[in-house]
Amino acid sequence: MNTQNFFHQFGLFFVILLFLAACQTVAEVTPEPTKAPAEPTLTRPPAQVNTAVPTTVPTDIPSPTPLPTDAPTPTATYTPTPLPRDVYAALQLIADGFVSPVALAAPNDGTGRLFILDQTGVVYVLDAEGNRLPEPLLDLRSKMVELNPDYDERGLLGVALHPEFVDNGRFYLYYSAPPRPGIPDRWDHTGILSEFTISADNPNRADPDSERIILQLDQPQPNHNGGQVAFGPDGFLYLAQGDGGNWADVGIGHPPEGNGQALNTLLGKIIRIDVDSGSPYTIPADNPFVGQEGVLPEIYAYGFRNPFRFSFDAGGNHDLFAGEVGQDFMEEIDKVVSGGNYGWPVREGTTCFNLASVSQPLESCASEGANGDPFLNPVIEYGRDVGRSTLGGYVYRGTALPELNGRYLFLDWVANEEIEGRKIYYADTNQPEDTLWEYVAIPLSMADGSEVPAFYSLSFGEDSQNELYLLTTDVYNPVGTSGKVYKIVPVE
Q1: Which stretches of the chain score pLDDT less than 50?
Q2: Which of 19, 45, 364, 477 has the fewest CB atoms nearer than 10 Å to its CB?
Q3: Residue (of 306, 333, 307, 341) closest to 429 by Cα position
Q4: Inter-residue contact 456 to 414 (CB < 8 Å)
Q5: What's the start-to-end Cα distance of the chain, in Å?
Q6: 2-27+40-67+91-489 falls under which CATH superfamily?
Q7: Beta-strand relationship, 439-446 and 89-98
Q8: 3-state helix, strand, coil in the chain (%, to 5)
Q9: What pLDDT, on the 0 to 100 scale, is given for residue 416?
Q10: pTM of the full predicted structure?
Q11: pLDDT at site 482
């Protein structure tokens, strides 16, 4: 922590200037319809996990090498490259008939299979030709909460295949279960991260009795669940958690500072654990808050409202990018780093969140959290002209669209429905750390040249060849059979 304080003191003056500039008055916009008042803020115990203390918490943490006190601050050199405006892409229908497909996983076993998660609780298998097998990989509906047919953010939300999946058949799911015994009064449900194993008799079926619960995370409200699960290039498992729901990070289950800023809860965080040791897991020795009293050591980064989707770059520096769903004014995409504080509920993107008038940011606000961690700016932000619930996306590392290689593709939930954009967006990742990235629209057509229909975008996915997919539905609620899986392909 001495080194961290040094860096903080060294750059405090510049950090304050940066964030004060980012939080200038924003022109008034027409407020959205008045929301129901938030419930009173209550103090609550820290969120529980299925073991109060992980079996093993390594304490031998290497200390960073301090910079020499007389070392000059290096000057970054950067030459902007104009982003081409003539990039086009198409959507090729791979499979349909889903209710609400929210995630995709691709075994790197040469079969060309895809695993498709439906929010309703079913994991389907597509063969290499896009045919859905008659029997699902796994059906968790009996273990889950009953979804609200009018609208629901709960369900089966995330999947990750173990890095050694081909050999060990292990994979991980995050889903919404009924409240477990002992959950605080009036809380909504329990989120569960579990490990499953492929059946020894059938590679297209999982053994339902193989479930090993890794984490149980009590949720005060039904919304803002996060749920993305992924293995990082370091072999550790990452899980995104929203701030617990409701609105503006207030109400039952939300402390005065908000779950986004509270370090004694896993809500509003991206967590990082080692599922290959311990029972049920251990804490990586270099997690940023290991050994700090009153701070949960699982936390990798914090200050999030609802990081519904995140991804690791399959190439380059394997950076972690998270799409952070905003409240009523700004959507953001963050380049997530260890120990990073992304500001919620003090900030929304680079703006200062205004609880009294959510569509009109404050002129100024704090530039750091209570423990001194500076609020980090997003790399991309956009307003309601682009969308209102970002999905984030992926850095493209496939070969079908070479002009997009190394560029970050992203989209919003409503961008091809309510806004009727018929496009996705991309940004060059080779941009300075201290600036918002320019992004450019990529017009979409269908692979046969026809017009793209209106749909709600639910998630991107990436296959074993690093080609990207778009998962969609025609309706915003988990009903019907309009869910589709598209592959992003070149325009012929």
Answers
A1: 1-78
A2: 45
A3: 333
A4: yes
A5: 55
A6: TolB, C-terminal domain (2.120.10.30)
A7: parallel
A8: 5, 35, 60
A9: 85
A10: 0.84
A11: 97
